[in-house]
Specification:
alpha/beta, Aldehyde Dehydrogenase, Chain A, domain 1, Aldehyde Dehydrogenase, Chain A, domain 2, 7-stranded mixed sheet, 16 helices, globular, Aldehyde dehydrogenase, Ald_DH_N, oxidoreductase
Length: 520
């Protein structure tokens, strides 16, 4: 296996049953930190805290390797990316175990996340040429003697700052698309999941024969800030809105463009003609899976008053057996980031204090590591559980008089990431009115599993897009080229242009565009 930019930096039991350790070499000298199993507090691995100088060196290594990566073209990159896809697939159990150890999420959830990521690697590799390759475009009237084309060139080196809640799927949504577009990448994973980042970089580097196209840097916020200032050509960040603002500020110093995928306060809207069992199943999974630590997960549910009671009965029946605990049969894992426990507790307490009705869980649901699923109804819209991102296994479920009210309340937030609508006759029109980057109808979060769709939000949820054609273009710059095919009939770009030429040009403009449309 390959080593980090400054030497091997990983040790610990980072392997699954029957799998060899990812690295058994000692940690390089210098400052380091530990990644911990959030279920138990046990040490999973030890990782370097890379300095600004080390980050700059990693960027330079990636930049040099990116020249080779760019020059092998779309087909060459496709071959390597598909090999990487196959390596990840064959070692799925190993990576799932590592995700389980560093995040605490169940193995099945880790496997689902990795499976979705594999599909995105496959799509990006196979579609980059079609999306980014040279395309002929119309030259218009004044350049009719020219052949015109546009292509999308790689930026150079992209910095990716990844999250801990989906440490494979989310960063690969940027890394894979940036690589497919021909860039080098320097990846700074969350300090909670550095081992997963190490694994991804090691396996890709193994596939490309040790070339440092994809580099790893690890550490805390200072390392991420150093990456923003290290000469990268773009930064893709996923995390909280507040941290995103700090990333933007650091990038602004050198006019480095950014893609920001920040938080959300997504809703599930349930119309009166919805399949209530399916709606309850979707809302419960969206709100509770990954212990609610999902940016596109549901935190609010607005249900038509005509079906509110039967919906709640169905929701509570399905939620009855969902609990959080340390055993392997737990359907949801712990809260990965300990500081989030205080936020979850505050939101629950505030909702109750303002008149919310606890129907599951409640004030005592927050433990030292785990939070039990909590559902509260009739919560005032000014409660923190409505206005702020909770990022825990909680759902606020409120009745509404009609779908106009559901849309109005859904949109009454500074966020605008995603959401779901359950219904029949009006479902599409409701989804179209929701101010968000993504909406699923009669399902939850399915847009994330469609590689050809863009992923991203509006407002405090960020800007820019990953995934799909938009995600490929996000890591390129457009290059326009014209080529003269024959001499122009009117040579307008010459110091020899005479009065007769100008008159003919004016006549042509009037003939083409001077007609009046009848006003109605």
């Amino acid at each position: 296996m390959t080593t980090s930019p400054t030497g091997p930096e990983l040790s610990g039991p980072l392997f699954g049953a029957g799998e060899p350790p990812i690295s058994s070499l000692p940690v390089r000298e210098g400052p380091s930190f530990e990644s911990l199993d959030p279920r138990t507090g046990d040490v999973v691995g030890v990782h370097a805290i890379h300095s600004a100088e080390e980050v700059e060196a990693a960027v330079e290594r990636s930049r040099l390797a990116a020249i080779w990566w760019r020059d092998i073209g779309f087909e060459g990159r496709k071959e390597f990316l598909l090999q990487w896809r196959s390596v990840i697939t064959r070692r799925l159990a190993q990576l799932s175990q590592l995700v389980h150890l560093e995040t605490g999420k169940p193995h099945g959830d880790a496997q689902l996340e990795i499976g979705l990521a594999i599909d995105h690697v496959n799509w990006a590799a196979k579609n980059a040429k079609k999306v980014l390759g040279a395309t002929s475009v119309s030259s218009g009237v004044f350049a009719i003697n020219h052949a015109s084309s546009v292509r999308y060139n790689p930026l150079g080196v992209v910095g990716v700052i990844g999250p801990w809640n989906y440490p494979v799927f989310t960063p690969l949504g940027s890394i894979t698309y940036a690589l497919a577009a021909g860039n080098g990448v320097v990846f700074k994973p969350s300090e909670y999941t550095p081992g997963v980042g190490r694994w991804l970089v090691d396996t890709f580097t193994e596939v490309v024969g040790g070339r440092p196209v994809l580099q790893l840097v690890t550490g805390y916020g200072e390392t991420g800030a150093a990456l923003c200032r290290a000469g990268v050509d773009k930064v893709a960040f996923t995390g909280s809105a507040n941290t995103g603002k700090r990333v933007m500020a650091a990038c602004a110093e050198n006019l480095v463009p950014v893609v920001i995928e920040a938080g959300g306060k997504d809703s599930v809207i349930v119309d009166e003609d919805a399949d209530l069992a399916a709606a309850a199943e979707g809302a419960l999974w969206s709100g509770m899976s990954n212990a609610g630590q999902t940016c596109i997960g549901a935190e609010r549910v607005y249900v038509h008053r005509a079906v509110f009671e039967p919906f709640m009965a169905e929701l509570l029946e399905q939620a009855r057996t969902v609990t959080a605990h340390a055993a392997n049969d737990s359907l949801i894992g712990p809260i990965t980031m300990p500081s989030q426990l205080e936020v979850i507790q505050r939101h629950i307490d505030d909702a109750i204090a303002k008149g919310g009705r606890v129907v599951l869980g409640g004030a005592g649901a927050v433990g030292e590591r785990f939070v039990q699923p909590t559902i509260i109804t009739h919560v005032p819209e000014d409660s923190a559980a409505i206005t702020e991102e909770t990022f825990g296994p909680t759902l606020v479920v409120n009745p509404v008089d009609d779908m106009d009210e559901a849309v109005q309340l859904t949109n009454a937030t500074e966020y605008g990431l995603a959401g779901s609508v359950y219904g029949k006759r009006r479902a599409v029109s409701i989804a179209e009115r929701v101010r968000s980057g993504m909406t699923s109808i009669n399902a939850v979060a399915m847009f994330a599993g469609v590689p050809s769709l863009p992923f991203g939000g509006v407002g405090q949820s960020g800007f820019g897009r990953i995934h799909g054609p938009d995600g490929l273009r996000e890591f390129t710059y457009a290059k326009a080229i014209t080529r003269q095919r024959f001499k122009p009939l009117l040579n307008l770009t010459s110091m020899q242009r005479d009065e007769a030429t100008d008159k003919n040009a004016a006549l042509l403009i009037n003939l083409l565009y001077g007609g009046r449309k009848t006003l109605r």
